[in-house]
């Protein structure tokens, strides 16, 4: 104690010293933490922490794709919160979208290319075609921020402009979903990987078919602007019928997954994964030969009319168009070519010479296409 003289200045210091000597701190004991991954089976582990099962995650995501409903409504389906449903759908969509390269790809094998060419040729005798390209808009919520208007398309709503290429059987070969709604179709194609492949000669003399919104190239055939001769009219009809599969694919895709048709109500940065995931699932359903969703007669007839009108094959008179609307010709499933007296040659009366002339015209269009 003599050594502590001068150090202990008051009673509080003395009491603290007694606490340190008499009441010594207990030594720390480190227990081995239980490993729940080894001590519990799958069922017990899920029940223990109330986690959503992988099957539940997949089902809630598929329900979201199939209904296009709100996250709150989808979450109520299995009794989870809106935020949990959002995280689950985002996670599962990313996993499915990673299968893109496996289920969505352009043909590369010579035999596969030959088969696709033949399938397109069987539609309207259009040669050397391996794909039909077009764009469609997917409605989204307002992205906000400093430049939301770049997502507003020409129809006045916010969207993503999605480019796709399909084969003749209704399968996606390429899907690009990263451009805002104000982007033009040709801009998307000019900046795509597929265009670079055609420019570099990967597909040699094969061609794509597109609508009049694209610029004509040696590998991208579009309709003639002002067809005058019977051969030119026949060429345009053949080109339109050959391009029709991509329109059909969009229709089947949006009927199979209504969220693509009604709109994707999530943050803009999550839209791409959801759109690509639904495209992957569409191709999987196509490979498994799943039955197609029912199609409305109005949609089928309107599709034929739009394809013809957009390519100047039909210029209906105003009174005919009014009669078309008031009499509900779509509902009666009247063939639109007859209803509007379209100036299109009767396919049953075409002779081999005319078809041969169409093929030569196709080659001429390719030859006069500007090199880029």
Automatic annotation (TrEMBL):
Residues 133-283 form the DDE Tnp4 domain. Keywords: Hydrolase, Metal-binding, Nuclease, Nucleus. InterPro entries: HARBI1-like (IPR045249), HARBI1_dom (IPR027806). It holds the Pfam family DDE_Tnp_4. It is found in: Nucleus. GO terms for cellular component: nucleus. Its main location: nucleus. Its cofactor is a divalent metal cation. The keyword Metal-binding applies. One of its GO terms (molecular function) is nuclease activity. Belongs to the HARBI1 family. This is DDE Tnp4 domain-containing protein.
């Amino acid at each position: 104690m003599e050594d502590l003289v001068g150090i202990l200045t008051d009673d509080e210091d003395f009491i603290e010293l007694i606490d340190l000597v008499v009441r010594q701190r207990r030594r720390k004991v480190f227990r081995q933490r239980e490993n729940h991954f080894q001590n519990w089976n799958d069922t017990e582990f899920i029940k223990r922490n109330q986690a959503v099962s992988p099957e539940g995650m997949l089902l809630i995501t598929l329900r979201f794709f199939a209904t296009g409903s709100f996250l709150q409504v989808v979450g109520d389906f299995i009794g989870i919160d809106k935020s949990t449903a959002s995280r689950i759908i985002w996670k599962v969509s990313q996993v499915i979208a990673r299968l893109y390269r496996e289920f969505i790809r352009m043909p590369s094998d010579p035999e596969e290319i030959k088969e696709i060419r033949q399938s397109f040729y069987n539609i309207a005798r259009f040669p050397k075609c391996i794909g039909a390209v077009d764009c469609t808009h997917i409605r989204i919520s307002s992205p906000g921020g400093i430049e939301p208007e770049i997502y507003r398309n020409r129809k006045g709503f916010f969207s993503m402009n999605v480019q796709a290429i399909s084969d003749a059987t209704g399968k996606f070969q390429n899907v690009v979903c990263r451009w805002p709604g104000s982007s033009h179709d040709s801009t998307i194609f000019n900046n795509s990987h597929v265009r670079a492949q055609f420019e570099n000669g990967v597909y040699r003399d094969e061609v794509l078919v597109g609508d009049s919104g694209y610029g004509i190239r040696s590998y991208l055939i579009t309709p003639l602007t002002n067809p005058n001769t019977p051969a030119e009219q026949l060429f345009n009809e053949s080109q339109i019928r050959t391009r029709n599969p991509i329109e059909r694919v969009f229709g089947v895709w949006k009927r199979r997954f209504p969220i693509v048709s009604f709109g994707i109500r999530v943050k803009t940065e999550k839209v791409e994964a959801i759109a690509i995931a639904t495209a992957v699932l569409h191709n999987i359903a196509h490979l498994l030969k799943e039955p197609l969703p029912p199609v409305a007669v109005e949609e089928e007839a309107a599709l034929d009319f739009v394809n013809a009108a957009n390519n100047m094959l039909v210029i209906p008179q105003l009174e005919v168009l009014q009669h078309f609307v008031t009499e509900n010709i779509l509902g009666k499933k009247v063939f639109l070519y007859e209803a509007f007296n379209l100036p299109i040659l009767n396919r049953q009366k075409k002779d081999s010479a005319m078809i041969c002339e169409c093929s030569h015209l196709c080659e001429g269009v390719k030859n006069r296409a500007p090199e880029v």
